[in-house]
Design a protein that fits this description.
The complex is a heterodimer of chains A (314) and B (515). Chain A is mainly α and 314 residues long. Chain A contains 13 helices and no strands. Chain A has one domain: ABC transporter involved in vitamin B12 uptake, BtuC, CATH 1.10.3470. Classes of the chains: A mainly alpha (314), B alpha/beta (515). The complex binds adenosine-5'-triphosphate (ATP) and magnesium ion.
Chain lengths: 314, 515
């Protein structure tokens, strides 16, 4: 028992929880922005992969780390645009288009990687983002290593949560996004463009999702592997529901999941000798499902989610 | 009513508007003028093209021919960019749609603010907006709480928000599509008082309505559409109701007469039924319906009618009391057991509970009978038979649509109601539950509904008629009970009642005195 308590008392546990949560924060914020306007983006898993690959490759080709981040966002925006065109003006099924984008983006990323590097056995490495050294804060006892020794992308993720909340609740644009996800006719009858808003949010949301992928190859690791996204996108879709489409709760959900995961790894080393490892791997997912069951029953869905809008039709 | 000045400037001109949907001509070279300070009523039967015309004016639809001209202040009329609600709003045209266009997840204030600020602005300026709105509210008499979420508002309040939206943008022309269809009589009176005030302040107002009495009372001028074309445009002082009804439907409309009925045995009984929690609940409701009679239930909406209808339809399980239909006692009823027991219903919200918009007219007509052998065989639907039956019903009930295969959502409101009516009465049910059956229907369709309900009664069915319209209740019902705050009074023969007492009871007066 005291071993378990010790896990929570260690700074490295909290640092790991935040690190694991970072790509999820990007993903859930991106998914939330799309869904608030009424478009489900199941392309997320592929967009993660594309962001991971494109960002890493840009850096490997010499674009510099922030150049890589930009390239990852552009790649995400590109796949977001495909999804947006298919689902918004053309009004196709958001599920089908999203899965299609995931398959397309994943395969295309692998294909480009393999074509560019046909015969490497171990993936080439890049000089990844290093933890920031923030004066005073990083040197605090316990809190410093637990919370403030993270790479710049983690701080970017946290900033994006705050920015999204501000835009959504405080600006005319945010009002319009909330309204178009609830009743597109309300937006149109106030003279705004339903298509413009929805396409804009899907592209922007997808660009943010891709940063989650970029974090994996440029911050958490320093290379690109096949299958490295490993379902993180799908977790973000579930976390969006868990968060009731609110940025603050989204951050909380991602951190919770990160903590579960970090805990699982540590628990495995404590008691792994008599419980099979797979049980631990399952734990964050089981706990997520349990949390979803409790929260999602009361979830306040955007009423127009999944419903395409056609002008001049009733 | 005080007329606007003879030489008042024209605010808006529709010039030869034609709109086609496939083979159907919804608007046929319509010309219309609206002057400053004028209230114009637009009449026409269901599907005549009123909503379409207004949607063209507001830029939701693009006309195939013709143009919309608006005055730009200096008295000159200039054409409005077609197909752009934004341009219409800029030119001072405001519209209150037949189905509200509000974002339910936002506050009243945010709904009004939506689209009025540039999207690149970094902060919504709510404080000045609030001041302007408070000023507007005191001047116009439209009161709503600005911080409420729209989902919590009543229908009447939502409508006030819609009007405020237009006024906030300094509308010069206000269009209201069937504003009173969902309002109680009191709310309608308030609305018209406000509209009159706005017109006196210089707005031009167009409203659509099927209620001839209010059209006569509240308008300066009346335009009538029939089959998409304008067939009349006269000052209100020169028309009467009978003439208007004829202009709308193209032939004389006969008054429905009830005649004496021959009530038989008791068919349907509710004993001590209670259901629901909040405002919309019913408590200890007793009711008995005999075969061959129409039992009216009068009440101001929001007093438990919706819950009563849901319980009887089997959609809500009461926590106390029991229901009995014919020989069967139904405690744990659901929609299917009620239908099987012989109940048919005309739901209050026909768009939500009456049809599936994406499905075709013929599927919607068959939807409650799909387990019957004429619709399916070995679990497979018989589409050809369903279509054939649908064609017969479309003829019999005069449902105006492009065919039995067109999606039901494309039909006009009145024609959707006819689908529900056809489906309901076709099965020859023992008990008919009709909730607000003539809401939004034109005079012709309304008299058709009355005729059908009376025919069901003559056949020996029991009809439960829930309505807010006292004229309708007095005309059709053999007995009337009043519902107030979830309590239902004993039913009394219509002959012993008059509008005055009913009105008082609906407001809860005599009931409280009796308690
Ligand atoms: N988007 C559309 N596509 C196809 N047909 C349409 C469309 N909009 C309207 N119609 C058809 O045009 C006709 C006119 O419809 P409209 O809604 O203007 O009638 P209305 O006069 O407002 O009737 P109501 O009194 O029932 O509201 C109807 O037959 C309707 O089915
Ligand atoms: Mg209409």
């Amino acid at each position: 028992m005291s071993d378990i308590l010790e896990i929570f008392m260690s700074a490295s546990f909290w640092a790991a929880a935040i690190r694991i949560a970072t790509p999820l924060i990007f993903g859930v914020v991106g998914a939330l922005i799309c869904e608030r306007s009424g478009v489900l983006n199941l392309g997320i898993e592929g967009i993660f992969t594309a962001g991971a690959m494109a960002g890493w490759m840009a850096v490997w080709l010499g674009a510099g780390l922030w150049g890589g981040v930009l390239v990852a966002a552009l790649a995400g925006g590109f796949f977001g645009l495909i999804h947006a065109v298919l689902t918004v003006p053309l009004g196709l099924s958001q599920h089908v288009s999203g899965i299609g984008v995931t398959l397309f983006a994943t395969s295309l990323s692998y294909f480009i990687y393999r074509t560019a590097l046909p015969d490497v056995s171990s993936p080439p490495r890049i000089e990844a983002f290093q933890p920031l050294d923030i004066p005073v804060l990083s040197d605090l006892p316990f809190l410093g290593p637990a919370l403030f020794q993270q790479t710049p992308l983690t701080f970017l993720a946290l900033f994006l949560v705050a920015a999204t909340a501000y835009v959504l609740y405080r600006t005319p644009l945010g009002l319009a996004i909330q309204a178009v996800g609830d009743n597109p006719a309300a937006v149109e009858s106030q003279g705004l463009s339903v298509y413009g808003l929805r396409m804009g949010t899907v592209v922007a949301g997808s660009a943010i999702m891709a940063l989650g992928g970029a974090f994996l190859t440029m911050s958490a690791f320093d290379a690109f592997f096949f299958g490295m996204v490993n379902g993180r996108g799908w977790i973000c879709i579930a976390l969006t529901v868990f968060a009731s489409w609110r940025p603050g709760k989204a951050l909380l959900g991602a951190l919770l999941f990160g903590a579960f995961d970090a805990f699982q790894v540590r628990l495995q080393t404590e008691v792994g000798s008599f419980i099979p490892g797979q049980v631990f791997l399952m734990m964050p997912y089981l706990l997520s499902i349990a949390a979803l069951i409790v929260v999602a029953r009361r979830a306040d869905y955007p009423r127009a989610l999944l419903v395409p809008y056609f002008r001049g039709q009733r | 009513m005080a007329l606007p000045a003879k030489d008042a400037p024209v605010l808006l001109r529709l010039d030869g508007i034609t709109k086609r949907f496939g083979a159907l001509t919804a608007n046929d070279a319509v010309c219309l003028d609206l002057k400053q300070g004028e209230i114009l009523a637009l009449l026409g039967e269901n599907g005549a093209g009123k909503t379409t015309l207004m949607n063209i004016l507001f830029g939701h639809y693009v006309a195939d021919e013709g143009s919309v001209l608006v005055s730009r202040g200096d008295g000159d009329l200039s054409p409005l960019e077609p197909g752009s609600p934004h341009a219409a709003l800029e030119a001072g045209v405001g519209m209150v749609h037949q189905h509200f266009t509000l974002a339910e997840n936002l506050s009243v204030l945010d709904n009004i603010l939506l689209g009025t600020e540039k999207l690149s602005t970094l902060k919504s300026r709510r404080a000045p907006a609030r001041r302007k709105l408070e000023d507007l509210m005191t001047r116009s008499g439209l009161a709503v709480s600005l911080d409420m979420r729209v989902s919590q508002l009543s229908v009447g309040e939502k409508q006030r928000v819609e009007i405020l939206k237009a006024l906030y943008r300094n509308a010069k022309v206000l269009v209201l599509d069937e504003p009173t269809a969902v309002l109680t009589p009191q709310e309608s009176d308030t609305l018209f008082a406000i509209l009159k005030k706005l017109a006196d302040a210089g707005l031009g107002i167009i409203f659509i309505s099927h209620k001839l009495a209010e059209v006569m009372a509240a308008s300066h001028r009346i335009a009538v559409l029939r089959g998409g074309a304008k067939v009349a445009d006269l000052p209100t002082s020169e028309c009467d109701q009978r003439q208007l009804a004829e202009l709308m439907v193209g032939h004389e409309v006969s008054e429905t007469v009830r005649g004496t009925g021959a009530p038989g045995d008791t068919l349907f009984i509710l004993t001590g039924v209670s259901a629901g929690e909040s405002r919309e609940s019913i408590r200890d409701v007793n009711l008995d319906l005999r075969s061959g009679e129409i039992l009216g239930i009068a009440g101001v909406s929001g007093n438990g009618q919706t819950m009563l209808a849901r319980v009887i339809s089997g959609l809500e399980t009461p926590f106390a009391g029991s229901m009995r239909l014919g020989e069967r006692t139904l405690t744990q009823a659901n929609a299917r057991t009620m239908i099987d027991a012989g109940l048919a219903r005309i739901p209050e919200d026909r768009h939500r509970d009456g049809i599936v918009g994406a499905m075709t007219v013929s599927e919607n007509l068959a939807i409650e009978a799909i387990r019957k052998p004429d619709c399916q065989r070995f679990g497979l639907l018989r589409f050809a038979a369903m279509r054939e039956k649908a064609r017969a019903m479309i003829d019999a009930y005069d449902i105006r649509c492009q065919g039995e295969d067109s999606p039901a959502r494309l039909l006009s409101g009145g024609n959707i109601q006819k689908i529900v009516l056809a489906r309901t009465l076709e099965t020859e049910p023992k008990v008919v539950l009709a909730a607000q059956p003539s809401r939004g229907l034109d005079v012709g369709a309304t008299s058709e509904v009355y005729r059908r309900l009376l025919a069901a009664r003559a056949r020996g069915a029991g009809v439960l008629l829930i309505s807010e319209d006292l004229d309708e209740l007095m005309r059709l019902s053999d007995r009337i009970a009043v519902i107030h705050r979830g309590h239902l009074s004993d039913a009394e023969p219509t002959e012993t009642l008059d509008r005055g007492t009913l009105g008082l009871r609906m407001a809860g007066h005599t009931m409280e005195a009796a308690e």
